[in-house]
Every structure is written in C-alpha cells, then in structure tokens.
C-alpha cells in the first residue's frame, strides 16, 4: 500500500496537451477513479503513473519518493489493461505466475502465490486453460490475479470492465469491491462510465481536456458539482439545465439552473414558483419511470413514483426542490 | 409420436453438395493428378532393374552432393530465418518512410534468380571481377588487401558460400514478410504488461515474441528448408564444379541421360525434405512448449 501524489503533472504530445497540470493525491489504500469522456487524458495519466509514458513536466510521487525517471518495474505497481493483455500462449497458471518467474522466485514460493491468486479470484480448476478457452469475466479475473500476485503498492486499472456485457460488468463491479476490501491496495481506476465510478470509488476525479475539474467522494461530486460539465457528466439520467430567467424564483438570465430528475415533482394545477410545461414521453425502467417534459425549447426529465401516471401532451407544472437546486454562471460554467 | 429422422442416400447427399463438389473436385484433380504422375515416374525409375534407389547410395558423386546440400540447407535455413527476423524487426516499428523501406526490402524478390546469380558471378569472377579489383587496391577508396586475385569459384567453400549468399539475399523478402505478419498479430499491450512486471528486452523476446512467433518461424523454417534442399539456379551458376542434389539430378538426366539414377536421386531428395519438415515442426513445438512453462 502507498500514497500516490501527482504534482503539476503534464504530458504533451507535440502541441496536444493530453495531461495538463494535474494535482491529485490518492491516499494509502484508497480506491480512486479517474472518470471522464474519451480523450480526456485519464488513460494517459494512468500510463504516466505506470511509467509507460514519459512525464513532460511535473512530478509523480509514491510515498513521497519521486518516481518520474524510474522504469515501470521499479515502481512496484501493477496494471490491468482494457484488453486484459493476457499472454495468449500461456495457461492461466503461467499468466498469473509470469511476473514471479521474471522476479526469479523459487518454485514453492511461486506455487503458493499463484495458488493464493487462483483462490482469491475463484479461478481454481481453470489453471491449465488458455485465455481463449475462458469467458470474458474469467479473463478479467486472470488479469487481476496476474496483477495482484506481485503484491503491488499501487494497482492501476484501465477500463477493465469495458469489454464485458452489462450483466457481467455489474457482477465484476461487486467482485472488484470485494477484492479491494480484502487486499486493501491503493487502486487508481480509469473509466468513462460514471455509474462505475460512483459505485466503486472511495473518491473520484472528473477529467476533461487533460484537467481535473473536480475530485471528491461520489456523494460530494453528485450533490455539489463545481461546474456544468461535472454536473452533466455525473448522474443518469443526466441533470436538467434550464435558463435562470424562466424560473420564477431565480429570474436571472446570467444563471443556468441545474436540477436532477429525482428533485422535481409535477402538479396538474398551477402552483407558485413552478414552471409550466407539457408532458411528453414516459420511459419505464422497471423500478423507475421517467417523464420527459417540454419546457420552453428544452426537454426536462423527471422521476415519477411507480404509482404516478400521466398522459402525453398534458399541461403540467414542474415543482422544484429548492434545496437541491444547482446554480451555474452561464459565462464561466462554474458553480455560484 | 417422435418424428422420424429422414435418412439420406449417398445420391441425395451428393446432390445436396453438388456445388461444393463442382468447385473443389477440379482443384483436387489439378493438384493430385500431377502429383500422382510425378510420384509414379519417380517410383518407377527408382525401383527399376538394378534398384537405382539403393545403388545410387554407393555413388561418390551422390554422397558428396547430398552432404553439400545438407550443409547448404542446415546453414542457409537459419541464416534466412535470422535475416528475416532482423529485417522484420527493422520495419515493424512505425517511422517516417516505413512503407518505402518495406517496399525497398521487397526488391530482391522482383529480380529473377538467374539474373542475381549471373551478377554475383560477374562480381566474383576470376581474375577481373569487381571483388578482386576491390581487394587488389584498384579502387582508390579501398585499401589493397590481396597481392594476387582470388579464384572464388575454384574452392568448394567459396563457391557454395556465394551460392548461399545469393540465395539468402534474393529470398530474404519472403522470410521478412512471413515474420512481419507474425509480429503484427502480437498485441503491444502484452509487452507493456511484461515490462511493468519487470521483463527486460531479452525476456520479452524470449517469453512473448518468440513463442507467439513460432507459427511464423515454423513456416519460414519449413518453406526455406524445402527451397534450400531443392535449390538449383544459384549452385548451377556459381558452383558448377560442386553440384548440389538439384544440379546433380539435372546432370544425371540431361547430360548423362540416366533417368533411373536421376529419379532415384530425386526420390531421396523428397524423402529428405519430408524428414526435415517433420524435424523442424517437432523442434519448433518443443521450443514453444519449453518457453511457455510456468
């Protein structure tokens, strides 16, 4: 276990600023997720920590030791790749034991460590199989085993669930949580899936254009997004944004108001401080129903109680939970 | 009532597969009919009166040619593989002008083997070839090394060496392309994972590149060894005094007008090719199994 600190970290590819002045501390034993859209620099940050890319500017510290110029294997980190990067010609056992073989561990020690990893990841009985004979979830577990068997200070996971189907992804999420509780290694996880980031992490850092926009616990980021991008990126369905001038109790054209679907109610009769709209389609997700309401030129989503039903095209009034309102400066996009 | 399974007669099966048969039978006929004719004559000549297949073994000319061809194959095949691997590694990484470099490396294959052999012959001819001129100090940019010109084709070592040089140079693009195709199937992330685990360049090559490249290496070894066993043009032009089996077969058939001995010689050649193919397949499989052990 170790603390990872990134200080003014930059990575430029020619003119392109892939990572732009990042400051971040990942505490000892913490599960931190870098989340953001494709091309935001999260994988590059991970590769910089791994030593697979050279730092342009700034520093990477593991337990206060500057590791910028250390080769990857001297950083005591392990990495799981999006494609798993298993060796296709090696059995499960050989894949997991590869790092130990390179470290020239004696046979008995190697056998017991590989056995520990097989047991931890519930891979017993599959030792002699080749990666092509495994399911996606099993391959994923082999990649995790190969990384964990080396007892790294820091475990780096680069979108490890993105190649799995939705059902398996959910199962692997639980599995990852269980693993983290058991091994207590510092984990830096990269994903573009905000649901994954919210459910797995102790803390998450939202990235865009090579910068970290906000870092905090999932509830902090969800409940108090510091800018428009974070507010819109975290949460599903996404936060609704309405111009302040159409909301009676805001009446400010410089303000953009954000409200989450679960913080809206509707009324069939006009009520004070409500905004008029017209009901549109209803989406049913089984446990939740979402109603889309046309307000001015925007489409606002709101969560309905299971017993609530509404016809399409009806005039309704949207009632805001004022405590849950997010106000953003239209020009800067920052929270006010 | 369980439904009765319909039983098809052979005629019905043939009718169902008429299209597949229609397109595959001509291919098989083309391949096997010719093969059967060749094998028939080889066997006919080899096992004719006096059993040439056995009697040729006591001929010194055959034994010498066999030994020469064996060495030609044994040294030439790994040499072609090594050159193929080095060139493939050179053009594997993407850099500015990689396509042009790859195309340049393909030039030797576009030149007819006979032309290459004749040019090498001219370069190394005695006493006025370019190589002798160069080593005798006739070109100002190169120091004088030889007092007297060297007769390269006068010794077995040099003339077979020149034939091998020509063969390796001319066929290097084939090995390069096969190895390059093999290299391109290896995921780069595997190397990165190994690098993080502490594997150095040699270990990455030994445990990842080499085993994953064994199918390509095996293909190169088998194809090149077959080619080397039956090589004709380069030794015919550059080492006429020291015939390999291919040249000997031609000599027995055309010059000595002895199709029986030529047939026996060719049959032995086919048997040696078969044995070498088996050996290289076994060898590459064994090496791969050793490399992927935990």
Structural write-up:
The complex is a heterodimer of chains A (336) and B (294). Chain A has helices at residues 42-50, 92-102, 107-120, 136-148, 166-183, 194-200, 218-223, 228-233, and strands at residues 4-13, 16-26, 31-35, 57-62, 65-66, 77-80, 154-158, 186-191, 203-208, 211-216, 240-243, 255-259, 264-267, 275-284, 289-295, 298-304, 315-320, 326-329. Chain A is an alpha+beta fold. In chain A, strands 6-7-8-3-9-10 form a 6-stranded mixed sheet, sandwiched between helices. In chain A, β7, α5 and β8 form a beta-alpha-beta unit. In chain A, α3 packs across α4. Chain A starts with a strand and ends in a 7-residue tail after the last strand. Chain B is an all-alpha fold. Chain B has helices spanning 10-16, 18-46, 52-55, 60-92, 98-105, 107-110, 113-123, 130-135, 156-184, 188-196, 201-229, 233-238, 245-255, 259-291. Chain B has 14 helices and no strands. Chain B has 2 domains: 1-46; 59-293, MetI-like (MetI-like fold, Orthogonal Bundle). Chain B is globular and about 90 Å long.
Strand line-up across the major sheet of chain A = 6-7-8-3-9-10
Q: Quickly count the helices of chain B.
A: 14
Biggest pleated sheet of chain A: 6 strands, mixed
Instruction: Write the CATH fold name of the largest domain in chain B.
Output: MetI-like fold
Biggest sheet overview of chain B = none
Radius of gyration of chain B: 25 Å
- Total helical segments of chain A: 8
Low-confidence stretches of chain B: none
- Count of beta strands of chain A: 18
Q: Which architecture of the largest domain in chain B per CATH?
A: Orthogonal Bundle
* Molecular shape of chain B: globular
Query: Secondary-structure element sequence of chain B?
Result: HHHHHHHHHHHHHH
CATH uppermost class of the largest domain in chain B: Mainly Alpha
Q: Show unreliable segments of chain A.
A: none
Ends distance of chain A = 38 Å
